[in-house]
Amino acid sequence: MAADRTRADSLRWMAQGSKTFAAALAALPDDRLDQPTALAGWTGKHLLAHVAANADALVNLAHWARTGEETPMYSSPQQRDRDIDAGARRPVAELRAWATLSSETLQARLAELDEQQWRRQVRTAQGRTVPANEIPWMRAREVMVHAVDLGAGLGFDDLPADFLAALLDDIVAKRSAAGDGPALTLAATDHPGSWAVSGVGDATRVTATLAGLTAYLSGRPALAVSRTGDEPVPELPRWL
């Protein structure tokens, strides 16, 4: 967990993000969920199934934290993908109800954890071993970013600035650890922070608002992102 990101922060962002996602979803008519999203190969129903299944998967980690019984998020990456595809074929009303119930269940299960259980080590879908303290952050990230992906008119600039800064820290750390993309230096026009991404070649300086930088680093379309010179900003490998 980042030194300046507390569990209280993550729980607050998870609650805010859950409300933001629910509001964005409520704004979409059922037929819009059959349409493609900005995520390649996914309709709105795929996205909704993913967000609902993610909450169920994090409930598994909450159970692991509470009982000590190893309970993976998913039985396998392949099963995760099959579950999303199957979920996307369910009626929209069922998907909406699933998304609501799974979100409420996750919040209830996390509220049951005591301090010792919050510190218990669990394993993410990517195979990282982390304390259960990370579960609210993992969920906040999902609901905030995917609220934008739903295409209901919400943008990264509608998300809380402190969440965006924490998300940018998180993505920078992951991309730097992977080291498979271009080296970057990032400067926000509306925030005092600056970031450096370790990677291939000489670092390219990229400038944008905090929201623009976060959208760019997460692989989403970003407005008003610029670099020194006339060339476009570098393309990035997949984030998650």
Report on this model:
Residues 16-150 form the Mycothiol-dependent maleylpyruvate isomerase metal-binding domain. One of its GO terms (molecular function) is isomerase activity. Pfam families: MDMPI_C, MDMPI_N. There is one protein chain. 50% of the residues lie in helices and 12% in strands. The chain contains eight helices and six strands. The protein has helices at 7-26, 44-67, 77-87, 92-111, 115-118, 135-149, 161-178, 210-217, and strands at 121-123, 129-131, 182-188, 194-197, 200-208, 226-227. The strands form two sheets. Strands 4-3-5-6 form a four-stranded mixed sheet. It has a two-stranded antiparallel ribbon with strand order 1-2. It starts with 6 loop residues before the first helix and ends in a 13-residue tail after the last strand. The relative contact order is 0.14.
